[in-house]
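We treat protein structure as text, and this decision shapes the records that our systems exchange. Such a record has a labelled line for the sequence and another for the backbone structure tokens. The record that follows is passed on verbatim for readers who wish to inspect the format:
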Amino acid sequence: MNSMTGFGRGDAQQDGITWLVECSSVNRKQLEIVVNLPRELGELEITLRNHIAARVSRGRVQAIVRADTSTTGGAAEVGIDEALAQQYLNGLRALGAKLGVADNLSLAELARLPGIAQLQTEQIASEHAAPAITAALDQALNQMLAMREAEGAHLRRDVEERLALLEKHLEAIKAKAPTVPEHHRRMLRQRLEDAGLPLPLDDERLIKEIALFADRTDISEETTRAASHFKQFRAYLNGQEPAGRSLDFLVQEFFREFNTMGSKANNAEIAHHVVAAKTELEKIREQLQNAE
């Protein structure tokens, strides 16, 4: 079991430029990949997305790619888009005049606007930069996946402990269920005696009532299915493929079986175990929200 939360960094050098990649992931029901690249290398996005998708099956993964020349002699230069800066300036001045806002835009504020100041990496063809970026991405993915695996181990331990408690509640319910019709028989006879209407044990009406009650309160099918769900749950836990969605579905099936047990059994002790079991199931479901 792997978590869907992780973070990693990677870097690789190419022609005096250090390519830096950061990967982070959080939980999502499906796989969602976001790749942020320098504008001039946008054509690499699909390739990098496919590269990530080959190693991650679930969660929202964001990869940020940056070029750094601070430690390599400045092979890349900073470029200023003067025409774009002039358009920003004209537009903001016109807006300020319309709204009555003072024109106090500084050069530093102007330079921070999108697209004005950029590293001039466009001289590097995408296919030439791709190997270094991919290598840095692999480093970042390795770190992120290692963190997801480590956190997933904690998730698994917690889920297995709660699963064991859940099994104990099921065994207690199975042990109590056969005594429910007999308890009902005793209570029914006691009520009849208290009302001055005693019946012999072999009275056909009493036998029929007990038989109907036993049929209505029979939860053997539910306990058998729940036991089967335990086997399937552990099979998914021990499997090699990501099983977060499958485990989440099984938790829903557990809820259904325990709810039916509680409504059919008509017994306070069984109801107590059902409530406790549903509490553990809710905690398991919360943990599985972050399982790949």
